[in-house]
Amino acid sequence: MQQYRNLLQANDPDIFNALSGEESRQRAGIELIPSENYTYPEVLCTLGSVFTNKYSEGYPGRRYYGGQEFTDTIEDIARERAKQVFRCEHANVQPLSGSPMNQAVYLGLLEPGDTILAMDLSHGGHLTHGAPVSFMGKLFNFIRYKTDPVDGSIDFDELRKTALEHKPKMILCGYTSYPRDLDYAAFKKIADEVGAITMTDASHYGGLIAADVIRNPFDFGFDVVTSTSHKSLRGPRGGMILCKKEFAPRIDKAVFPGLQGGPHMNSIAGIAVTLKKALEPEFKEYGKQVLVNAKTLADELLKSGASLVTGGTDNHMMVLDTEKSYGINGKVAEELLDEVAITTNKQIIPDDPNPPLKPSGIRIGTPAATSRGMKEADMVKLAGWITTILQNPEDKNLAVTTRSEIESFCSRFPVPGI
Ligand SMILES: *Cc1c(COP(=O)(O)O)cnc(C)c1O
């Protein structure tokens, strides 16, 4: 790697300097965006490898180009490991990222105009779950269910009524900003009653399913589970579609040639490496620590008087209502924390009265901090910093001293791969 770096430095200093800057930024601060993580050095190695040179349209054993002996090997290994990690019958590891992954499922299993019952966006659903600005929202008819913002529960009697009324072809659960686990058995029961396909978008928590620290939808008979590979799973950017065998031909055809061209084989090599790690006992420990850290951080924030959507967390993330807690919106809170090298993201809360660019809260998650080795005592410190900064938005001196405290704290935790 060093050799490549020297070349880059000599031949394209602008890009090299930006890379060094990003490395320093990732090292200096605490990364709390719940969808981000630090991948393994081995994965960085595969991403920067000659697998990026190769076209491999098709699937192992039936490609449209020659020279596939090694690409077939890595994709076969990645698919087998994915099936083992997620306990499922079929895996497609070619989606270029989370969004095309979900698109491929809809396009493969549904017809344009079909109805999908999915979680309301402000309650935790994702853009690809039919936001009006997404093409999926234009192609399919999305109907919404909501959650109870006080305790996070889903009213399944209401959901059943909606399902009976609208007869969805698919019931979709999974989230991007919901701090609780899901009752897959309840979703499945309703889906069976109306003859709907069951799908979970586990993009955020694929790693937690892999570590077996939250429920696995396949244990409840779900048909399809999608997950990104770069969030809690700690892999390269990419997506995976996991499903029952009966859906495999339609899913594979939808990914290629339906939606995509050549897969990114350097990412697929990285996904294979990531899934081997996910099968090791250390990964289970990692998953447990992600949850313990989130719970500790949430408890400390609650003790300080802060308000969390649904009152806490059962997974790797929480949504802090900054309007209610400190009288500031999520954009201001995100910027205040940025100034002290704590990275979060502004977040709409259920039925948010504020606009999306100035929403009422921020989203905080522990996967990246846990990858650096942070534990409970560190979460207590972190909660203290977040609280003092957000309680004293005008205090510039406090921001300066806190930033240097945080930077020296962070120097104790090496960043994997840097
Ligand atoms: C992150 C995410 C996606 C999209 O992933 P990209 O890789 O950003 O395209 C899809 N669904 C959910 C629930 C997500 O959290």
From TrEMBL:
Where mainly located? cytoplasm
Q: Where in the cell is it found?
A: Cytoplasm
Q: Spell out the PROSITE patterns in the cross-references.
A: SHMT (PS00096)
Q: Where is this site: Plays an important role in substrate specificity?
A: H230
Q: Does the keyword Nucleotide-binding apply?
A: no
Q: Which family does it belong to?
A: Belongs to the SHMT family.
The name under which this protein is listed is Serine hydroxymethyltransferase
Phylogenetic lineage: Bacteria, Pseudomonadati, Thermodesulfobacteriota, Desulfovibrionia, Desulfovibrionales
The encoding gene: glyA
